[in-house]
Each structure stands twice: as C-alpha cells, then as structure tokens.
C-alpha cells in the first residue's frame, strides 16, 4: 500500500488497498499524492464533480486509453458528475463540419465517461444545467471558469482540479483538504478599486483581463477584493470569471456588494486601481484583426437561456452571412427549443454548437478571424487555433454575422473596439 501522510478512514484505506476495484484504487492514489504534495491532513467529502479533458482534440489517444482503462476497472462515480465541453456537438457534429474519424473517437470518450456513470451533459456552465452546489459545500471541479464562478459567486469550495483529479474525486466522493477548501486560503490579498463602468459580457471579460494581468504581474496571485462595482448579471459574472481565470490564473475573487463572502473581509491594505482607460486598453488588445471576421461565435462560457433569447430576437427574419456558432449546454438548448428560439436562430443559418465550443472543437486552420464577446475565447483562439480575434459587445457580434463579407477579404475596414459602452457605440463598419 502507498504510504500517505493523511489520516485515512478505514473505508479510504480499503479503497487504497484495491478492495473497491482497480479504478477506485488509482483514484485514491491520485488523491493521496495530491494530499501529500499540498500537505492535506485528510480527505473530505465532495458534493459534486465537474470533469475537464473531455474533448478528444485535447485528450488524444493517450487520454482516451487512460479513460478506457478507468472505465474498464469497475469505476463508477458516487457523486453527481458533469463533463466539460466535448470536441463536437454530440448530435449534430456533421452540421459543424467535424471529420468522421474525430467523431468516432469523441464518441468513445463520452462512452467511457458514461460507463463510469457521469452525466453526459457537456458544458462549462454546469451550474446552469443542474449541477449547482450550495454555499459552503466542497466540490471537485475542473474547468477554470466554472471553478472561479463556484468559489466566488456561489461560495462553494473547490480547487482548480485537473481532469484526472476531478475524475478521482468523482469515483471516490472525496478530495484532499487543502487550498480553497480551507477558509484561511480564501482571504483577499489585494484591494482592486474599479474606477470604470463596465457593462455587458465583453466589458466584463476585458475587466477580468485587466485585473487578472495586474494580479499575475505581482507573482503571488493574491485573491482580489474588488470594489467600485454597483451590479453584475450572471452573464457578466461568468464572462468575468472565465477571463480572470485565463489571464490571472485565479480561482476566486471577492466583489463588494455582489459576491457572498466579500463582506467577511475588510479592504486589503495593498491597493491598485483599474481605470476606464485600463478597461478600454484591455478591450483594444483583444482585437487584432482588421476587416471581416469569417467565424462568429457566442457562448464562451456557455450561454444562458436569456442570451439565447437575445440572439433569437436579433436574428429573427434575417440571414447570416458567416459561419456562426452558438454554444450552450444541452439543457439550455432543450428549453430554447420549446421557447421557439431554436427555430428563429436556425432559420437565419446560424448553427447551434451544443456540447462543445469554438475552443475545444478541432477547427484549427478552418478560419482566419473570430468575432466574439469573450475575452477567454480570444486568448485560446489565438493560442490554440492561431486565429486573429475581434472582441465586440454581444449585440455587435450578432450584427457582424449579418454583414456581407468583403470580396476576398481583401478590402479591410478597421474594426475599432467600442470606445463607449452599450449598443449605441457601433463602430464596426464592414
Ligand atoms: Fe467554456 Fe469553451 Fe469557453 S469550455 S469557458 S466555452 S473555452
């Protein structure tokens, strides 16, 4: 038996000894190793798991082989478990131009997870699709945007798990007690005074970039205690979380008057300010392409029903001229179907890309320029898919899908990020 420094219960010792099967034994070894590395005193129960590393584009053959081994080793999840986006829409992958050989591999990945009892709902917003923890509950979530949302907005407790450690927690119902599970590690380490007026998902993504990079530059990744914000919607917060986690590597923030643990702490003595100019500079930095985008996508993180409704309203009776992916969870799409939103959207030529997103799908080389409202999508479109990007306000992204493409994309009109906020600041003249 592996030597561990944590106090394990008899049941946990038994799991580690292999009494509950090979998969659970491997899972316990992962958790024991993490506990040892991070100095955890014990394992604690988790309420749910969210597993990343689901797209075959990220997993590859080695990842699929490991999952198949775990699924074949009598592994079965013992807490509610959802999955991150896959590399394709599990039903309509052909519509999105996904190659058949990729699709067959992706189906094997989902089959392995399903065999282990995971719910095959593939989304990065599990909190909008039935996997919503309560305040104070410990969970084991991978997917950095959802981790940041769970810790900050919901007040649940999770570290930034990797795919294997989240699966280990799902199979054992436990995680090592360290990091964000401990109250002392949730204390703010810097006060961020927002002297700007962000509005909408693009602005909140840019704000997350500005704060994330500011904190990242300090080297010690202090949890920001953010003041100066009057309100924030669910959509704005999920965009902010995705961006803060991407550009700052942060698992949590506090926002005075908005997040549930902010009032537990006084402002931190170390202070920094983010101005309107900082916010606009962050927005400008995410637009590096002139002229038409040839790929339009909304839904990073996955869209809420209200966002889908807004897209339907904007597209009703119109035809898109670009490849336009609308990415959301199967749960939200099901309601959109009933509400008639799907019909309006698909009649326009826009495509639902359910279960997946513009980052984890195998689309490198297919497009040149992505138009989106997501700062996180911009980061990965550049880094993973080598696209240029245009960050726009939500409504402007939809509008950009309707404009006629410039012939051969040769005559480019500079797309200038909005100097102001809101719908009235439309500077995209294509
Ligand atoms: Fe979700 Fe894909 Fe963005 S997983 S947060 S839509 S990169």
Number of strands: 14
Please name the CATH topology of the largest domain: Aconitase, domain 3
**CATH secondary-structure class of the largest domain:** Alpha Beta
The whole-number mean of residue pLDDT values reads 92
User: In which range does the helix fraction lie?
Assistant: 25-40%
Number of domains: 3
Small molecules (ligands, ions, cofactors) in the structure:
FE3-S4 cluster
Radius of gyration: 22 Å
Describe this structure in a few short sentences.
By secondary structure, this protein is α/β, with parallel strands linked by helices.
List the helices and strands and how they pair.
Layout: H1 10-16, H2 22-38, E1 43-45, E2 49-51, H3 56-72, E3 81-83, H4 100-115, E4 140-141, H5 144-154, H6 163-172, E5 174-176, E6 190-195, H7 201-218, E7 224-227, H8 234-248, E8 254-255, E9 271-275, H9 276-285, E10 295-298, H10 305-315, E11 323-326, H11 330-339, H12 341-347, E12 351-352, E13 369-372, H13 375-383, E14 388-391, H14 394-400
Parallel strand pairs: 2-3, 2-4, 6-7, 6-9, 7-8, 10-11, 10-13, 11-12, 13-14
Antiparallel strand pairs: 1-5
Helix pairs in contact: 2-3, 2-6, 3-4, 5-8, 7-8, 7-9, 10-12
Bound molecules: FE3-S4 cluster (F3S).
Residues 84-85, 124, 145, 242, 300-302, 327, 357, 359-360, 376-377, 380 line the site of FE3-S4 cluster (F3S).
